[in-house]
Amino acid sequence: MSSVQVIIVGQGFAGTAVAWTLASRGIDFVVIDNEIPQTSSRIAAGLVTPITGKRAVKTWEWDEAWELARSFYPEIERRTGTNFWTIQPALRLFDSEEERARIENQTMIHSDLVTSYQPSCAMDQSIDQSFGGILMKVAARLDGLAYLEASRDAFQQRNAYHRRSIDLMNDIQVSAESIAIPALGVRARNLVICQGFSPEPNPWFSSLPLVPAQGDILTVDIPSFYEMRTIHRNVWITPVGNQTKNALKTHYLVGSTYRWRPLDGLPSLDARQEILSKLSRWLVRPIEVIDHRAAIRPTSFDQKPLVGKSPMDPRIWVLNGLGAKGTLMAPWCAEQLVEALLDGSEVQSSLFWDRRHQ
Q: Which of 121, 222, 257, 326 is 20 to 30 Å from 353 at the Cα level?
């Protein structure tokens, strides 16, 4: 049986960030993933914005998380020889005069991050920009699928990847000396569970406070429309990148929705109509839907990530609950987890997975 220092279950944004963070410290690991195609990480648009929500508030822990993300992803690009990270200003258009009046003062509060945007004749005139907006000067996008696949290939090349479904109760063998998965012939000092949403209970974190939400995303073709920025107005629209094979410059991702019932992972006709209806309010062009995907986000009870060790065994850890902010939060949370696991430091209290009961 081979030995590594850390076994990671799950290769979404969370597990991939943990693996690369361990690699940067010279720690050997193995990643195990079931390669389900429709997961929240694999279909995510990977948008990173400093201002978020209906109230346009500064993204939680923005300064720390952004500082790490903007160095983390270019380093992985360098290590994999793949391009998937783009830093580019993003535009949020106001939907009404009331929204403009409510949000415009954010340009004064966060002048380092945003500036006021006035209607511009240089923008495609099929976009309704009559209420103005804010330009997020610091924003980014991760092509999540390209990132995950390049990372998986890199892990495979170092013999640190297995494709397999793991039963957290029956496949894991715990002893005083190690944590082993006999079916794979591997054992480790520590196990990190980064499964995201799973319909099966997690026996090591039985009270993990997840409140999963399903989201739908469309891939659309908008002929003769060539906007390279991400634009937000009730829904967001962003260039496809490598999310769809044979993508054209007129292909865009549009989304997304939140639905708490049912959680079936299946595209919803109602969600599709909701997205198209919101988009048509401000983008007046013929739109053809060429793909429709859905997945279940692992969202926590308070919209913040969940990090920490199991009360049943301190060698077993969790990183979950990244929700819609996974691209931004994954590197920062992975850093916190790895420092705690290797150095014995404390995880930030606002991230501790059992904070709901403290």
A: 257
278 compared with 108, residue with greater pLDDT? 278
* Tokens read off for 2: 């081979």
Q: What does the angle CA 249 – CA 66 – CA 90 come to, to the nearest 5 degrees?
A: 35
φ/ψ bin of 159: left (φ > 0), alpha (ψ from -120 to 50), beta (otherwise) = left
194 vs 196: CA distance, rounded Å: 6
Task: Dig out the tokens for 42 from the structure.
Answer: 């694999």
Determine contact, residues 327/255, Cβ cutoff 8 Å.
no
What is the Cα gyration radius of the chain?
21
Q: Is the pTM of this model over 0.85?
A: yes
| Contact residues for 161 (Cβ-Cβ < 8 A; gap 6+) | 11, 30, 31, 32, 33, 152, 155
Structural element, H or E, at residue 87: strand 85-87
Q: Where are the domains of the chain?
A: 2-43+145-210+301-357, 89-138, 213-297
H-type alpha helices, 125-212: 144-157
Strand 140-142 relative to strand 85-87, pairing: antiparallel
- Decide: helix, strand or coil at residue 331: helix
* CATH of span 2-43+145-210+301-357: 3.50.50.60
What angle do helix axes 13-24 and 326-343 make, rounded to 10 degrees? 50
CB 181 within 8 A of CB 173: yes
Mind listing the pLDDT tens digit for each residue in 251-266?
Answer: 999 999 999 888 999 9
Dmax over CA atoms of the chain, in Å, equals 69
Judged by DSSP in three states, 306 sits in strand
By CB atoms closer than 10 A (0-12, 13-18, 19+), residue 294 is buried
3-state helix, strand, coil in the chain (%, to 5): 30, 30, 45
Cα separation of 318 and 334, whole Å?
A: 10
Element (DSSP H or E) covering residue 172: none
Nearest CA among 356, 300, 296, 293 for reference residue 329: 300
- H or E segment at 241? none
Coil, strand or helix at 271 = helix
139's tokens: 């924003």
**Quick one: CATH architecture of 213-297?**
2-Layer Sandwich (3.30)
